[in-house]
Amino acid sequence: MDITETTDVLVVGSGIGGCATALAAARAGAEVTLATKATEPEHAASWWAQGGIAVTRTAPESFKADILAASDDTADPEAVELLVENAKPAVEDVLFETLSIPFDGDEEEYAYGREAAHSKRRILHVDASTGRHILGPFLNHLSSLESVTIHQDTAALELITHEGRVHGAYVEHDGDVQPVFAGATVLATGGVGELYPQSTNPDGSTGDGIAMAALAGASVRDMEYVQFHPTVYTGDDPFLLSEAVRGEGAFLRNGDGERFMPEIHADAELAPRDVVARAVATEYERTGDVLLDVSPLDFEDEFPDLAAMCADRAIDWREGIPVSPAEHFLCGGIAVDTEGKTTLDRLFAVGECSATGVHGANRLASTSLLEGLVWGLRAGDAAAGFEPDRIEAPELLDRDPALAEGFGEDKSVRLRRVMEEYVGLERSPEGLQRATGVLRRLKGEVDAYIRTRTSRELYELRGKSVSALLIARAAAENERSKGCHYLTEPAHAD
């Protein structure tokens, strides 16, 4: 494996959080190694961000209020303050000046969009494919920096720890495993989409970073808050339909042709995601179908990328686009402070695998790219300057990589079935207890294998089993319905 054995900063993951971390660390004078499982930019979730990136314009207080309201008043006000106050300088520095992202609009004014639970137009976007227009140039820019080395198709398997300090990680490429010692290690490994049958996440969203950090002793928080996006085409070759479409006037109809959201929430289709997702699921079950009606807008002109996706799948959008909820974003994760520091020395986390406190029980639309950018810049700056230490690390090198035929797929199918049935949009205390028991046994079966074997597939399975158990346990321990954690039989309902 052609990868350096020591580096100042090891970044694991190549979404916007990982890229921002690498950029800031390099600017601070650090040598940076970025290891990513991705073989193409589109393998990172940031690539698929459609709506855009929310920014602070002339009303920062309303932005803060919208984030708190969408979270069902559970977001950390100090974290929200940090996000909003740093939004404009971070976007101007990186997206405008460094990357020159061609956001929609003209020379005089950007075409700011509006999405669910936003009280004002404040979202910068490029059509409905903002993520790819940011991430591609970002990775190209990092590749041009002498102090940044990017290794694709390279998975982190386990953190190297000693007496509460993280010294790097074991990484795998093409079956070879080796330690990479780092002054600071930053996890930017994304979400947990593969825990559910339907997700907007790319393949490989297996909760690796969360599992590695938790097993090493780092604190996690808010793991029960798993957000489902309400408007996803879940037929063959599924795709997400951005909230920006509803922000421009599209609405939802059930199988009887009735518009139902105005009776459920004062903001109708622009209610918080958790509210809309549950309503869509209810109407789908009750009437057999839910359609996104885009007739109020010039769909082809305003959202050409989405119109093309419909055409590729033989969907006549003029008749309405079939939608249903799918897992979208983990609002919790590895607990971090304002600089992305975890509870373990020299371990940082950014992006979806981290829990900054910004999202609380439910994420406001188009804040994920912003959070990854703001915390990534802060984490990269804080992570630079540590000297790497080589220590005696546990041996992972000589284990048998082979798995029994069907072992991984069988466990993954069982896990997804349990998560869908008991830890999805709606939950019950009894179901969560049942899920916790099943997932505990499944994790034990994976642990038994991992003592004697080392392979990417097995460690991804461990990531899924650990993350699923953390989510189920947190949900079982939280008796209060809030945001994404909706109990059908709550002990305490607000």
Can you give a write-up of this model?
The model has no long low-confidence stretch (mean pLDDT 93). This protein is an alpha/beta fold. It starts with 5 loop residues before the first strand and ends with a strand. The chain folds into 3 domains: 6-225 and 329-383, FAD/NAD(P)-binding domain; 229-327, Succinate dehydrogenase/fumarate reductase flavoprotein, catalytic domain (Flavocytochrome C3, Chain A, domain 1, Alpha-Beta Complex); 407-493, Methane Monooxygenase Hydroxylase, Chain G, domain 1 (Up-down Bundle). Strands 1, 2, 5, 6, 7, 8 and 17 form a 7-stranded mixed β-sheet that branches. Helix 2 (60-70) crosses helix 3 (77-98) and helix 11 runs antiparallel to helix 12 (429-450). Helices cover 36% and strands 18% of the residues. It has helices at residues 16-27, 60-70, 77-98, 130-143, 208-216, 243-247, 273-287, 299-302, 304-312, 368-383, 407-422, 429-450, 456-477; strands spanning 6-12, 32-35, 53-54, 123-124, 148-151, 155-162, 165-173, 176-187, 220-221, 226-233, 239-240, 251-254, 290-293, 321-322, 324-330, 333-335, 347-349, 354-355, 480-481, 492-493.
